[in-house]
Amino acid sequence: EGIGSSTIQDLFDLGLLKDFTDLYFIDYEKDLFGKLEYKEKKVRNIIDGLEKSKQKDFVSVLVAIQIPEVGRKSAQILVDAGFDDMAKFIEAAASGDVESLSRIQMIGPKMAASIISFFKTPKMLARIERLKSVPLMMRRQEGDGDIIDDSLAGQVWCVTGSVEGFKNPDLAMEEVRRRGARIVSSVSSKTTHLLVGENPGSKLQKAIANGKTILVPASEFHKYLQK
Q: Is the predicted pLDDT of residue 142 greater than 70, yes or no?
């Protein structure tokens, strides 16, 4: 929040940003104010956005550090399966424990190997140590991602296209997961609901073809969340 791609480029051009972790250690009022048209309000928005990011939950932190193959849905699955502390990922990587990760439903050997490789990288371990000092959330906190109710229990949801009101479609799926639904990445005969956003892909054709999946327009999505 408060930092877009143009700001990132400006920070890079000014020599203030060499690694993404630098974002938390720049003195914006001293080093950015008055440069490249960065006035008080714009600088304050950047600082406020970074402060808000410190309150993001552990799943959001896992997504932010950009583990290859791991998006928000996969990160949530990992946390729910017991990898709810950054130290557990580091320990698994140190022992080369691909098996524990690959046994988790919807993770599999390829993603597990990618996670192990990522957390073995000295550069990434140094970044994590730096982010700890910010501090960012390095473990799941009580209440993170809690189930709200079971109003969608027994349903299997998928999403296609971008969904208004959600920066990432996976965030929309997180809302149905918190209401008891199971989330899948592809449409099959077992998929009960497909959330159809803007510019839908081939999942829509598959859902229409199987004739069993309920198509939920993005404009109607809020009704399912209010049941």
A: no
Give the CATH number, domain containing residue 160. Answer: 3.40.50.10190
**Structure tokens of 26?**
């720049």
* Nearest partner of 61 among 144, 169, 143, 163, judged by Cα: 144
Domain containing residue 39: 5-53
**How far is it, in rounded angstroms, from Cα 170 to Cα 2?**
21
Contact 150, 144 (CB under 8 A): no
In whole angstroms, give the CA distance from residue 191 to residue 182: 9
Query: Within 10 A of 135 (CB to CB), how many other CB atoms are there?
Result: 9
Average confidence (pLDDT) over 161-177: 86
Q: For 62-72, write each residue's pLDDT tens digit.
A: 999 999 989 88
Cβ distance 195 to 156 under 8 Å? no
Q: With contact defined as beta carbons under 8 Å apart, do 72 and 59 qualify?
A: yes
Task: Tell me: pLDDT of 227 over 70.
Answer: no
